Amino acid sequence: MTHTPTLAPATPAFIDALRARLPAPVFREATPGYFEEPRGRWQGQGVVLAPGNTEDVAEIVRACAAARVPVVPYGGGTGLVGGQIAPGGPTPVILSLERMRAVRGIYPAENVIVVEAGAILQDIHTAAAEVDRLFPLSIAAKGSARIGGNLATNAGGVNVLRYGNARDLCLGLEAVMPDGRIWNGLKRLRKDNTGYDLRNLLIGSEGTLGVITAAALKLSPRPMGEGTALMVVEGPRAALDLLALARARIGEGVSAFEIMHRAGLEFLAETLPDIRQPFAKMPEWFVLIDVGLASGLDPAAVLEGLFAEAFEAGLVSDGMIAQSETQRHQFWEVREQIPEANRRIGSISSHDISLPMSLIPDFIVQANAVIAGIGAFRINCFGHLGDGNLHYNVFPMPGRGRADHVAERDEIKRAVHDLVHEMGGSVSAEHGIGRLKVEDLERYGDPVKLDAMRAIKTALDPLGIMNPGAVLRG
Amino acid sequence: MTHTPTLAPATPAFIDALRARLPAPVFREATPGYFEEPRGRWQGQGVVLAPGNTEDVAEIVRACAAARVPVVPYGGGTGLVGGQIAPGGPTPVILSLERMRAVRGIYPAENVIVVEAGAILQDIHTAAAEVDRLFPLSIAAKGSARIGGNLATNAGGVNVLRYGNARDLCLGLEAVMPDGRIWNGLKRLRKDNTGYDLRNLLIGSEGTLGVITAAALKLSPRPMGEGTALMVVEGPRAALDLLALARARIGEGVSAFEIMHRAGLEFLAETLPDIRQPFAKMPEWFVLIDVGLASGLDPAAVLEGLFAEAFEAGLVSDGMIAQSETQRHQFWEVREQIPEANRRIGSISSHDISLPMSLIPDFIVQANAVIAGIGAFRINCFGHLGDGNLHYNVFPMPGRGRADHVAERDEIKRAVHDLVHEMGGSVSAEHGIGRLKVEDLERYGDPVKLDAMRAIKTALDPLGIMNPGAVLRG
Fold it and tell me: Do residue B184 and residue A448 have CB atoms under 8 angstroms apart?
């Protein structure tokens, strides 16, 4: 087990001592936003500090280490598993990166951008577009999520199929380690085999091993032409066959492959009636395919060719190919607004899971049967099929609310996660562990890996000040 | 510094005790091949054990831990930095994975193959091709290198530009940790954010944190059409501009982009006269471009279109596009035989370096000037320009041998590495640290990262039995 030294609160005296060493803008008003999280599960606490540069981050962490004050790194506050919230324990420093937003350099010839950790994801998209490049990481919260948090949680999103997760888009990091020293690993190199992969260790460690302060990120050329289609499939197995066909014909040109169920369309109709419904008659299952192609290929023609071959093979029964950017946007809006529709319906239990791709059809059948055995529910299962990542979410029947199902909540979650685990899947595909899934990690995680994680945590953060209680039990 | 407990030799009594617990085939004759390495720099020693399954690997490591006997994991023996050789210290166990070659499973619908660590890289290529898939990791030693070693050293090769390094091709690992416990991390998942990234920590750790016993690897669809061109460029800057143009037009379809210098052609003419010289008049600089394209694109036409636009822009002055598979093979043979020609000439000092891509032209000019300041030498600079990875190798003038330059060897290496370091590059792009570059890592490595590495090493291998002296000083 992790050795847990006694932590101390960030007292007024502790903060006053910092005031003498740091400029005034570091000291922020602790407005309620810092202590809320998107799903409203926890209420946080803490003293908010927002350093303006890496040296000041280091100064704060050194002071916290000396006084054994907990440090909770804070990006855009959009995390869904409570990694950014300290609901109990000694008052921590909430270390917000919000003032460190600079683009330190952009290198179009290298396809590299170097940004500070507080840069908002969408601002990085804009900076890349200004030099005719793409930064492909894209998640629903891109307008407020900050890249430091995206990296700390190894964010996923809709373009993972083509471009990988956040870790795959990072070439180098600058970070403040738990002892307050600065690791300058901000390399702009595609190949660098000089020692252990500290970069990937920090990425996905959710602020428990250090504070990411800047990153060198990979950019990509922008595809020459883009296109989007919706295609109706009989079910998840046909969808997987369609994906294999698409990748055989189009290769890396398949940028996104998202599966959706009729429930998503029904939820949109129920809660967001202004969203344009794409189908005259709601299909049981359908996919959104997005392509970004090289010179010499017409996206609509490529999607038509795919549809024709898939129709011939009996994989698709209907479909539509966007004829304009407006229509592409409408197709994507269906996918992107489903989480908002879910929020308005109010899920009893949501599951961010991944599975070996070929087992997904079986999983859905079995999971639906398990849930039906617990009671009468609506299920909205959708997500990044191309990555084997489903959002398998369970909702009350019409006329009932989540408050009616408090008693079944844990049973549902446990049943879904047990099945995922049995099938070799992950109970946190892209959201991370945070505080929400610490018990799941203990239950389903490999014990040898867990022991290695605890040993690493103790080795790098012997005082246990970095985001205590996240990922590993404090 | 790393705490170094006293290690003990693998005595006859130690091995005899193992004989009682392990089947006879585990105990191998210690033929000289196990103690040689490709560059002939070291002579190794040890007792060779070749377990047939993961349980037996664990049994051996547990016994070594109990007796504090060093363990040197051994794959294909093709590493270029001595990571697989123990030239001194107490007699180690050479833990060869050669008997663990099984394909445990292949999942075309998932684009995944699960193999044991002793599988030879080329055999994995063959297994993938049999299900119409590609395993893209490819290095010169593919006929004898084993995937466990490829992963332990995070191998690179000619397809990194498109498909990434070895770590980018690995979804999951099974490994025996230094205490002899088995980590079952053999997930077939594209997204899995459940805790620290132990997979990437083991990948590239060169056997110092555990023994990789099996891996789940990513496969790719095979491109519908492939093509290769040689194009003459004025120099490295034009080559970089050509690469940017190629990627803008062709996207991920650019599979490889290799730069070569006239010296490479001269060395081939001198040492391997049977290799067909591609150019009537040897150019100063040229590139090999390989493309693998989606349905609907003709590789030759795509390369012609690229050449036409590049010629118009003044980036290329001459070129040829392979008109057959035979010609593709001939073009590639030029690139692939350059290391053999180098070996026959006999380098004074070889450098496997990477740089921020936009700095490569400046680096070559400055490095050539630095070398000229030391004396009269021939330089063969070539490599994976698309990855910013150069092999910058220094040779004697005609009529002289490497033995004539022993005195200058360290000066040359130091000068090249100092310049690489000043320019933000890496002194080991793809070969790793092994035993050859331990001092380089100490000199050029970030001290905060080095301390973190030492802390991790001590945390996971407190007895220091795993490949002592590799990567970190024992």
Answer: yes
d(CA A93, CA A131): 38
Q: Hey, is the C-beta of B450 within 8 angstroms of any chain A C-beta?
A: yes
Q: Helices (H) and strands (E) in chain A — how many of each?
A: 14, 17
CA distance, residue A376 to nearest chain B CA (Å): 30
| Second-level CATH architecture of A346-431 | 2-Layer Sandwich (3.30)
CA distance A13 to chain B (A): 30
| Chain A residues whose beta carbon lies within 8 Å of the beta carbon of residue B190 | 160-161, 354, 357, 387-389
- Contact yes or no for B429 and A453 at CB 8 A: no
Six token digits for residue A8: 């101390």
Residue linked to tokens 């961010």: A352
The residue ranges of every structural domain in chain A are 103-221, 223-342, 346-431
Contacts of A294 in chain B (CB under 8 A): 249-251, 253, 293-294, 297, 302
* Closest C-alpha among A247, A124, A355, A255 to residue B189: A355
Interchain CB distance below 8 Å, A456 and B453 = no
What are the chain B neighbours of A463 within 8 Å (beta carbons)? none
Same fold, B103-221 and B224-339: no
User: CATH topology for A223-342?
Assistant: Alpha-Beta Plaits (3.30.70)
CB contact under 8 A, A156 and B191: yes
Residues 148-187 of B with CB under 8 A from A: 153-154, 156, 160-161, 164-165, 167-168, 177, 181-185, 187
CATH number corresponding to B224-339: 3.30.70.2190
Facing residue for B109 by CB, picked from A160, A244, A437:
A244
Give the span between the Cα atoms of B404 and B398, in whole angstroms: 12
- The verdict on ipTM greater than 0.85 is yes
Tell me which fold the domain A103-221 belongs to. 3.30.465
Residue with token string 């295609």: A231
Q: CA quadruple B430, B433, B439, B443: dihedral positive or negative?
A: positive
Beta carbons of B188 and B172 less than 8 angstroms apart: yes
Could you tell me if B224 lies within 8 Å of chain A, comparing CB atoms? yes
Give the minimum alpha-carbon distance from B81 to chain A in angstroms, rounded to a whole number. 11
Give the closest-approach CA distance of B381 to chain A in angstroms: 17
Contacts of B410 (CB under 8 A, 6+ apart): none
Q: First-to-last CA distance in chain A?
A: 10
Structure tokens, B14: 């130690």
Say if strands A93-96 and A71-74 run parallel, antiparallel, or are unpaired. parallel
Give which of A289, A229, A238, A232 is closest to A262, Cα–Cα.
A232
Using a CB–CB cutoff of 8 Å, tell me whether B320 touches chain A: no
From first to last of its 474 residues, chain B has per-residue pLDDT tens of 444 569 999 999 999 999 999 999 999 999 999 999 988 889 999 999 999 999 999 999 999 999 999 999 999 999 999 999 999 999 999 999 999 999 999 999 999 999 999 999 999 999 999 999 999 999 989 999 999 999 999 999 889 999 999 999 999 999 999 999 999 999 999 999 999 999 999 999 999 999 999 999 999 999 999 999 999 999 999 999 999 999 999 999 999 999 999 999 999 999 999 999 999 999 999 999 999 999 999 999 999 999 999 999 999 999 999 999 999 999 999 999 999 999 999 999 999 999 999 999 999 999 999 999 999 999 999 999 999 999 999 999 999 999 999 999 999 999 999 999 999 999 999 999 999 999 999 999 999 999 999 999 999 999 999 999 999 997
How many CB atoms within 10 Å of residue B11?
Answer: 14
The nearest alpha carbon in chain A to B429 belongs to A192
Instruction: Show which of residues 97-136 on chain A sit within 8 Å of chain B, judged by CB atoms.
Output: 107-112
Q: What are the start-end ranges of the H helices in A46-179?
A: 54-67, 121-130, 147-152, 160-163
Helices assigned H by DSSP within B147-193: 147-152, 160-163
